[in-house]
Amino acid sequence: MGSEVLACGDKLLVVGRGLRGSRVRGALHRASILLYADPKGSLPSALENGHLRRDLERAGHRLRTATSREEFEAALSTGSYDLVLADLKAAPLVESRAREAASKPTVLPTLYNPSDAELKAAAQQYNCVLKSPGDQKDYMAVINDALAQRAKQAPPESKH
Question: Which of 55, 78, 86, 158 would be 36's cystine partner, CB 3.0–4.6 Å?
């Protein structure tokens, strides 16, 4: 029928295909995003080779990158973030730290050019998996969905 997409929008993000500049006009929800780009993981490649960083910036998101655990923990304790993108392998640590942070950011485990076996393992570990080999804007849609879910879960502001 068309590209296969299986996603709930806030659990797993598959990147690896950059967006054409004309297709990135702006995010539905602008976010403050912390990128935990541990050099041992695949996120640095996704940011540079997959053009994720460029696409996120073009969409209007504010980005901060941490390349070590110490930088990541310092960023979480001193900043306010909506999302944290981290390599799938680092996701359990990142999720536990994010729950402790004041801003309680949503964590998006990230895969870059995953194999079928990696996708299968991720699908077993997380409730939602995104796979759309032909659609270059899917990861931006996942980010927008995660931000929309986050907005729905935010406590209502008190009116005084």
Answer: 86
- Residues 6 or more apart from 70 whose CB is under 8 A from it? none
Q: Are strands 83-87 and 32-36 parallel, antiparallel or unpaired?
A: parallel
d(CA 88, CA 94): 10
Q: Tens digit of pLDDT for each residue in 3-60?
A: 334 444 444 444 544 444 434 445 566 899 999 998 888 778 777 776 778 888 888 9
Phi, psi values for residue 90, rounded to 5°: -95, -5
Residue 157: per-residue pLDDT: 57
Segments making up each domain of the chain, as ranges: 13-152
Token pair listed for 19: 């967006």
Q: What is the pTM of this model?
A: 0.74
Longest CA pairwise span in the chain (Å)? 53
Identify residue 151 by its one-letter amino acid code. Answer: A
CATH (residue range 13-152): 3.40.50.2300
